[in-house]
Structures are given as structure tokens and as C-alpha cells.
Design goal:
- By secondary structure, this protein is mainly alpha-helical.
- It has 9 helices and 3 strands.
- A 3-stranded antiparallel beta sheet has the order 1-2-3.
- Helix 2 packs antiparallel against helix 3.
């Protein structure tokens, strides 16, 4: 190596694979050469190192919701305080959809509102609660949300599913695969679900 015109043997392969130029750093014991390699194998040696993007800040799971959501959140809380729990859960679901449109499905604002909706759904209706709890736990796992509340959601999802399994086995069976997806690492609850769902246990 040693000369700025050094050309590695794999020159164009990564670039050709991606269909665009790629950044490469050729290294020797005492020196490095930042390069741009084109899909055709041409190499441009740079005079300065490749820039690296700043790491993204960790999501803030403790922050307040945007002020624009204040009226809708107040309506949720008012319905909850008046013991109109199904209405409060429905309002929270509408607000969660708005947050997803504004910020994306895994943003802390969206996931926090989904979590509120799940707890309200648990108080409102067992069947809908199971779906809401499972969906919210799946979303929290994907978003790397704080695990303590995620664990509470998964435990409640399992307990709610068990009640449904006694009353509506077919519906419970439809939920089983999704429930198992949030019980990864929870061997006791996973075993319980498989015991009560022989269809799934045999797959």
C-alpha cells in the first residue's frame, strides 16, 4: 500500500452492488486513505477523512405531549373522570392515530398515547383490551420503550387472553401468535399459552 494511487482489488464490488458510489478507507499500519469508489471501479482518493454523522439523541420517553394535543387529551381525561371509559378509550385511539400521522408509529408521543389507550381499553372491554394491549406491547418493543411498563402490558395481555380463551376459544386462538410475539423471554407465560393452545403448540 503506501501510495495515494493504491487501488484495492475489490474496488467496484460494493459500489456496484449498491448501484452508487461508496466510501472506503484503505488502511496500512501507519496511514489511512479515505476514498470514494464508483460502481465502475474508479477510485477518488480524498485529502480529508470521511465525515461521520452525529449520533442521534436517545428518544425522550419522559417528555410532555405537544401543546397541540392538549384539548384532545383533556377530552380523554374528562371522559375518564366521568367514568365514560369506552368513550375515553375511543378518544385516545383517535389521538394516537393523529400522533402517528404527525410523528410516526414508533415516536414516544405515539407510543405513549397508545399506552394510555391500552389501559383505558383494559377497563372498558376485555376482548378489545387484549388486542389493544398486544398491539401496544408490540409497538413499545419495536420502539425500545422503557421495559417496565411494557412488561405490565404483556402480563395484562396474557391475563386478558386467558379470560377470552375460556369464553371464546376461537377468538383467543386468533390472538395467540401475536400474544406469543410479546412473550419472548417469558418462559412461564409462553408455556401457559402453548398449553392452552394445542393448535399453536403443534406448529
Amino acid at each position: 500500500m503506501g501510495a495515494p494511487g493504491f487501488r484495492p482489488a475489490f474496488d467496484g464490488l460494493p459500489a456496484a452492488f449498491h448501484g452508487r458510489p461508496v466510501r472506503v478507507t484503505a488502511k496500512e499500519t501507519a496511514a489511512t486513505w479515505p476514498m470514494i469508489v464508483t460502481p465502475g471501479g474508479d477510485v477518488l482518493t480524498l485529502s480529508t477523512p470521511h465525515p461521520y454523522p452525529e449520533p442521534r439523541p436517545a428518544p425522550d420517553w419522559s417528555g410532555d405531549l405537544p401543546a397541540a394535543y392538549g384539548p384532545a387529551l383533556a377530552a380523554v381525561r374528562a371522559a375518564e373522570a366521568a367514568d365514560r371509559i369506552p368513550e375515553a378509550a375511543a378518544l385516545a385511539e383517535t389521538l394516537a392515530k393523529q400522533a402517528e400521522t404527525d410523528h410516526g408509529p414508533l415516536h414516544p408521543h405515539t407510543v405513549s398515547i397508545l399506552t394510555l389507550r391500552a389501559w383505558l381499553a383494559l377497563r372498558a372491554d376485555g376482548a378489545w383490551a387484549a388486542e389493544a394491549l398486544i398491539e401496544t406491547a408490540q409497538r413499545r418493543i419495536a420502539a425500545h420503550a422503557p421495559p417496565d411498563e411494557t412488561a405490565r402490558l404483556t402480563h395484562n395481555a396474557h391475563a386478558t387472553w386467558r379470560m377470552i380463551a375460556r369464553e371464546d376459544p376461537d377468538y383467543a386462538r386468533d390472538l395467540t401468535a401475536r400474544l406469543l410475539s410479546i412473550l419472548t423471554g417469558d418462559d412461564r407465560r409462553t408455556a401457559d399459552v402453548l398449553r392452552l393452545s394445542p393448535d399453536v403448540a403443534g406448529t
